[in-house]
Design brief:
CATH superfamily: Oxidoreductase, molybdopterin-binding domain
Mean pLDDT: 87
Number of strands: 11
Distance between the termini: 53 Å
Number of domains: 1
CATH architecture: Alpha-Beta Complex
Order of helices and strands: HEHEHEEHEEHEEEEE
Helix content: 10-25%
Structural class: alpha+beta
Strand order of the largest sheet: 2-1-11-5-6
């Protein structure tokens, strides 16, 4: 009888572990965004110096992270931002997942977040910046996907309030060609 109870307990614990692991989605398509640092949910391990050479070049360093493909980002609640940018010239409607929801989906800590573009340019936001604004990770402008080599794959955007500007230290910057986010210092 004791053996049967032990076997049942082992099976129950194993099933619970499998069920927990299956709740974290894995990217099936090309990864557009990697988030490292203080994330509660992860679907990838630490930076691998060989496999993750682009992340290494961007000085990304984390023990576990979360990788998003396009479909995973589209599955999150979407927001819209209408803005005129120097890069595109005219006013455009940008669409993509709400940054708040991206952070909640991976159980990210509410701390400083650094946003890094494919060329190494970076900016950051504090929790109060995110809570007080409509930041999105834009996947498209005027219904067209943001492509690599342009402002894509992602563009951190918000509707700037009157008088709102980017800090000299790039706080609040609309980082385009966004590929990596680091939660925490």
């Amino acid at each position: 009888m004791l053996r049967a109870l032990i076997f049942f307990w082992i099976a129950l614990v194993s099933f619970a572990a499998l069920a927990e692991d299956s709740s974290v989605p894995e990217p099936e398509g090309m990864v557009l965004l990697t988030v490292g640092g203080l994330v509660g949910k992860s679907n990838r391990g630490p930076v691998d110096k060989k496999r993750d050479s682009a992340l290494v070049k961007l000085k990304a360093d984390f023990k576990h992270g979360f990788a998003f493909d396009r479909d995973m980002l589209l599955a999150l609640p979407q927001g819209e931002v209408t803005a005129a940018t120097p890069e595109l010239g005219d006013e455009a409607v940008f669409k993509g997942p709400l940054l708040k929801d991206v952070m909640v989906s991976i159980e990210a800590a509410k701390v400083k977040i650094r946003f890094v573009a494919s060329d190494g340019y970076s900016g950051y936001l504090l929790p109060e910046d995110i809570d007080a604004s409509d930041y999105i990770l834009a996947l498209e402008a005027d219904g067209k996907p943001l492509g690599l080599g342009g402002q894509g794959p992602l563009w951190l955007m918000n509707t700037r309030k009157v008088g709102e500007t980017v800090g000299e230290d790039n706080r609040g910057s609309h980082v385009w060609a966004l590929v990596y986010m680091h939660v925490g210092d």
